């Protein structure tokens, strides 16, 4: 039934950057369902800022492909969620509009960069939300807030209307209270779109199936090595034992390219960011550039005041990595490293059906615990290999907790095997329910 | 090691509007991050990246697109249907 949804949640966690108090909806699979959208996904006529001052007041003249699909399915778009500016961060503290708090413990971060979407779901404000995942930005906040989040296979969900940060790595994906909700949202958003040149014609019509008898699970040693909190590792191992009780078998494996995967990731994403974010000049959108000044003067002024410190840092790092004399040492090597990561996964997937491990090496950090950029980057070590390889991965909450905080079980699959990672997550979720 | 002079140069290349008082901290952070990036030195070979993708092109046919009004709506200034920009020369 078409109609209008009244939405005025008690947003005590700063999950939303803006709320649509009267959200129209139509008929369809998601008729009347409140869906929140991360603020780097274009919504026609609804301010879209990427949590950056440089896009304050920007009203997209068109909908992202996924937003159009949601409207066609009858969903009510109830608001835009907070995030690390342009998706650059692991805590949602890099938002120009203040951090989002973790509903499980307001002294802690919700994870990032899709922290607002995860917090809105964890707090019960919405059942489902869209996030984006460039190096873990769906799975990290899902793990930290105790919800479910899927990073789909690269190409399965159109990026048309997603404000680009690192095109070769990022995907829009579903986040929800449980695996069924994530699967229902994936049904709506997956499929071919000719406006995204990397789109692949692989729609998703799946319904979760909890039968995993005979499933072969790879357990990489690197996911339980130094840097991974012992209690988190133990909680995840207990979850893997549960999958064995359901009839799966486990097989030790190794991803040697993990040694340099994080470095390859940060070289690649900052390089792409330095190019993508060159468009923010205060001329076509954003805060006005002073047209009386010269181009470079006016441009630098807008970008100095419009971008936050982490965005400026990444643009400069990428500019450096691509600059004459350094390209071979950084960018070219990172692409070879990326190929090695893909080959490691392909080799392991010849013997096993899925690979599992922790989503994050620790539980959610305390607010302002991570101030040094490199130590923040290092916390992405378990999520970035998936983006380098383009494969699907889901984070589902473990039954056990550490310091009363949720821990994410990460399940990674072969390219286009999103259905299987959903099934394994569903089997676990049902078994511990 | 990169120097404050290098960071000033990168800031200019990126048009990021770097300020003198920021140079010390950025230089310190970049050196720590670049030292970590040196892990890539252990990657062997330079091979071109293999993939199974083909470029997607469409025929050059005019299709419906945004109106001029819609395109100009977010611009900070416009004149006679054009976007007003800072001078280049």
Topology of helices and strands:
The complex is a heterodimer of chains A (433) and B (89).
Chain A (H helix, E strand, L loop, with lengths): L2 E4 L9 E4 L2 E4 L8 E5 L26 H8 L3 E6 L33 H8 L5 E6 L5 H7 L2 E4 L19 E6 L2 H11 L26 E5 L9 H16 L3 E5 L4 H19 L18 H12 L2 H13 L6 H21 L5 E5 L14 H6 L5 H6 L3 E5 L10 E6 L4 H15 L1
Parallel strand pairs in A: 4-5, 4-6, 9-10, 9-11
Antiparallel strand pairs in A: 1-3, 2-5, 6-8, 7-8, 7-12, 11-13, 12-13
Helix pairs in contact in A: 6-8, 6-9
Chain B lengths: L3 H10 L9 H15 L30 H5 L5 E2 L2 E2 L6
Antiparallel strand pairs in B: 1-2
Mean pLDDT of chain B: 90
| Rg of chain A | 20 Å
Mind summarizing the main beta sheet of chain A? 11 strands, mixed
- SSE class of chain A: alpha/beta
Amino- and carboxy-terminal Cα gap of chain B: 36 Å
Tell me, what's the shape of chain B?
A: flat
Quaternary assembly: heterodimer
Nearest-integer average pLDDT of chain A: 97
What is the number of domains of chain A?
1
């Amino acid at each position: 039934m078409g109609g209008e949804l009244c939405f005025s949640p008690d947003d005590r966690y700063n999950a939303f950057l803006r709320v649509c108090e009267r959200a129209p909806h139509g008929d369809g699979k998601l008729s009347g369902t409140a869906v929140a959208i991360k603020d780097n996904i274009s919504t026609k006529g609804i301010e879209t800022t990427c949590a950056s001052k440089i896009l304050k007041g920007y009203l997209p003249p068109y909908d992202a492909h996924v937003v159009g699909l949601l409207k066609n399915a009858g969903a009510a778009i109830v608001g835009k969620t907070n995030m690390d500016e342009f998706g650059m961060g692991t805590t949602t503290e890099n938002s120009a509009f203040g951090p989002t708090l973790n509903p499980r413990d307001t002294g802690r971060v919700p994870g990032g960069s899709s922290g607002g979407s995860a917090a809105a779901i964890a707090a019960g404000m919405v059942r489902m939300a869209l996030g984006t995942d460039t190096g873990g930005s769906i799975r990290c906040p899902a793990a930290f807030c105790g919800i479910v989040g899927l990073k789909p296979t690269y190409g399965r969900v159109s990026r048309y209307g997603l404000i680009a940060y690192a095109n070769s790595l990022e995907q829009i994906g579903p986040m929800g209270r449980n695996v069924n909700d994530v699967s229902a949202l994936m049904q709506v958003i997956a499929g071919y779109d000719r406006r995204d040149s990397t789109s692949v014609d692989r729609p998703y019509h799946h319904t979760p199936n909890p039968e995993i008898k005979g499933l072969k699970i790879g357990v990489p040693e690197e996911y339980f090595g130094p840097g991974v909190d012992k209690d988190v590792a133990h909680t995840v191992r207990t979850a893997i034992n549960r999958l064995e009780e359901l009839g799966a078998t486990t097989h030790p494996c190794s991803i040697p390219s993990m040694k340099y995967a994080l470095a390859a990731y940060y070289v690649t994403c900052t390089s792409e960011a330095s190019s993508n974010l060159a468009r923010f000049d205060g001329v076509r959108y954003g805060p006005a550039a002073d047209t009386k000044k010269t181009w470079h003067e006016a441009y630098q002024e807008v970008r100095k005041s419009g971008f936050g410190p982490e965005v400026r840092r990444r643009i400069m790092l990428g500019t450096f990595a691509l600059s004459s004399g350094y390209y071979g040492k950084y960018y070219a090597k990172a692409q070879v490293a990326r190929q090695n990561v893909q080959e490691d996964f392909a080799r392991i997937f010849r013997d096993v059906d899925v690979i599992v491990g922790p989503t994050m090496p620790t539980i959610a950090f305390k607010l302002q615990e991570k101030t040094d950029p490199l130590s923040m980057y290092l916390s992405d070590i378990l999520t970035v290999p998936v983006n380098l390889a383009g494969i699907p991965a889901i984070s589902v909450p473990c039954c056990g907790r550490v310091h009363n905080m949720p821990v994410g079980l990460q399940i990674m699959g072969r390219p286009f095997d999103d259905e299987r990672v959903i099934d394994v997550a569903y089997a676990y979720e049902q078994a511990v329910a | 090691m990169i120097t404050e002079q290098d960071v000033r140069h990168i800031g200019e290349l990126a048009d990021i509007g770097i300020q003198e008082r920021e140079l010390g901290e950025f230089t310190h952070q970049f050196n720590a991050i670049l030292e970590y990036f040196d892990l890539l030195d252990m990657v062997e070979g330079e091979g071109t990246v293999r993939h199974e993708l083909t470029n997607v092109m469409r025929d050059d046919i005019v299709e419906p697109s945004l109106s001029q009004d819609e395109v100009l709506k977010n611009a900070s200034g416009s004149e006679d249907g054009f976007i007003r920009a800072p001078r280049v020369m």
